[in-house]
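Task card 7
Instruction: Convert sequence to structure tokens.
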Amino acid sequence: MATPECGSLVAALEAAGARLVVVASGGGATAIARLVATPGASAVVIEAAVPYAREAVDRLLGGPQETYCSARTARRLAMAAWQRARDLGAPAERAVGAAVSAALVSREPKRGEHRVCVAVQTLAATATATLVLEKLARSRAEEEEVAAALVLDALAAECGHASGIAAGLLRAGEEVRQERVEAPAEWRSLVAGTSRVTSGSAARRGEPRPEALVFPGSFDPLHEGHRLMARIAAEIAERPVEWELSVTNVDKPALDYAEIRDRTAQFTGPDGRAEPVWLTRAPTFLEKLAVFPRGTFAMGADTYERLGDPRYYGGSAAAAAAAVATIAREARGLIVFGRAQAGEFREPARLEAPAALRDVTYFVSQREFRLDISSTDLRRAARADRGD
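Output:
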């Protein structure tokens, strides 16, 4: 059912030239119904989706999520929505992705909080609004109304339209926590696809230098294992490491601006100085080679095995062989570290790899490096510390 508030919101979005994709998971889908029931919505709303089951969310986001109701998951859903708007023809500066991830009243009482997390992604910024609801104070329908109101308010804020629908629905002690991360021009160019590399710190500017020692990764989070690998790689290659973080991924949404900010902030040395880190649009190794010509690359055993595996080239053995030939010809070298998997440490020298790759690879022995650290375990511990 359309409301006067939705009518003015749709008009404001249309005036701003917005082309919108909305995703609702776990709650907040009433916002979609209200938007599409509003006259003129077809000029604004391109598509709406309700990936309700966890399996549907996993498919949209490229894999299982560690938590399904959080600001981080809402941001990922919003970025997936923004990219979908782009896929459907929206110009980068007009595309808007909105998402809500909610944990509301259910048949069985929830042990955790009742929570609503909303995110809006544009080329300019990543914005989030998070609300913890007073438990057992509302019906499911009433909590759904609050979730929908938060979505509409967040969209209104992004087009400069005063709203405040949710404010009238809050109970004493409830507070909407908001965050907005404005992207510098360099990040916008990367996300829009008009550039392929930019510096992520003041430690290095301009374009990457040929023959750099590059350590690519997601660094979620950066941990002591990565640090030790970087020190060993620097000794082997006789040059300092330059970190690389791709904002795009082969089968997952791009990193949002809050994620880019948080991950690049990790690259600070013991002396407090910023370390050289590159932000790229280079999710595959062949694309990294194009960004870092004649580079030496440090990597873990799992990444190394993927370099020549046909599964990562559409199942084509010919494409995998061609990729291996390119890597062997254009990379100055590969430095490969073992890792623990299923309780067993995998010595990198024992990995199966094409001869051409082995010819350009330095395998770091277990004696030189072994540190069994799990990024997943570190993220779980961090969430526990925050009470997520």
